[in-house]
User: Fold Nucleoporin SEH1 from Medioppia subpectinata.
Amino acid sequence: MNTRSIHADHKDLIHDIAYDYYGRRLATCSSDQSVKVWDIGEDNQWVCTASWKTHSGSVWKVTWAHPEFGQILATSSFDRTAIVWEEMIVDNNNGERNQSVWFKRHSFVDSRTSVTDVKFAPKHAGLLLATCSSDGIVRIYEAPDVMNVSQWSVQYEIVCNKACSSLTWNPSLTRLRSPMIAVGSDDTNNSGSKVLIYEYNENHRTWQRVEITHAINDSVHDIAFAPNVGRSYDLLGVATTKDVKILSIAPTVQEPAAQQMGQLTQHNDTNRYDIRIVASFEDHGSQVWRVSWNITGTILASSGDDGTVRLWKANYLENWKNVGVLKGDGCVGLAMSNSTNSDSNSVLNVPNRSHFK
Assistant:
């Protein structure tokens, strides 16, 4: 696997990076209150094409909307807001339309505390945006007119009763499944599972919690559903304070098509899924901060305080194993790196995304 370092020139910690849909653009955000957008050129070099200050506090997360809706970013911040940005091509001083400018389209100010994560829904759900906050509330917004991303309204509020650190939409491509969201919590003052799963009930037009049998009690820093390209079950990657966990979420019964399309019955919905922890790894030997799946949902990448990115893949027996380690200096190996780069706050080691297909 090839890696390439990017001197990001952020002035503080980089909290998140996000590829766009095609893997040809990157967005980064930082405690320096700024966001940067990077484009890869014909020489395969990443070039910063936009940089701007976004918030009045640390920017925790950045995410891309599906390109069908345009070049749109959303950011979330310690300043209790989330913001939607749209890229427009404008005339430069010579009258040529080749200058990229990112405009603030909408600011979400409903949260009373830090907005810890923000994610766009899968394309087939429409232009929806979910945020979660330290106040324990997940808010789902909708842009009724996809051609005007300046107008948004709150559609749902999910009260989680514990501080939320991260969220993820189930990106399943089938329309026969109800929308599903998983939420991670880092609330040390609240006992119980730190992974919360919610499913949309079309009959009641509410989001209902799906209980998990095996509770995860360690604080969760990140959570990610795997893309599903044919499995009969879903996979959920979880980054906790001490390990990486992979959950399997399988329907327990084959329901009629009308019910599969979101019209859930009124029985105890906790029986609808068999949720199991299928893998747990403590190889990082430290806190794990991020998890991310490849485009086919077959490889999970995790990053931790040990300065490495570790890759996990299941064999034909569905046994998950470590298949690679990327060290902080860009080297590839199987040994844990015990050293840290003092300049790691402003340098990105970016793998060639083609290796993740």
User: Anything to note?
Assistant: The two ends are 12 Å apart (CA to CA).
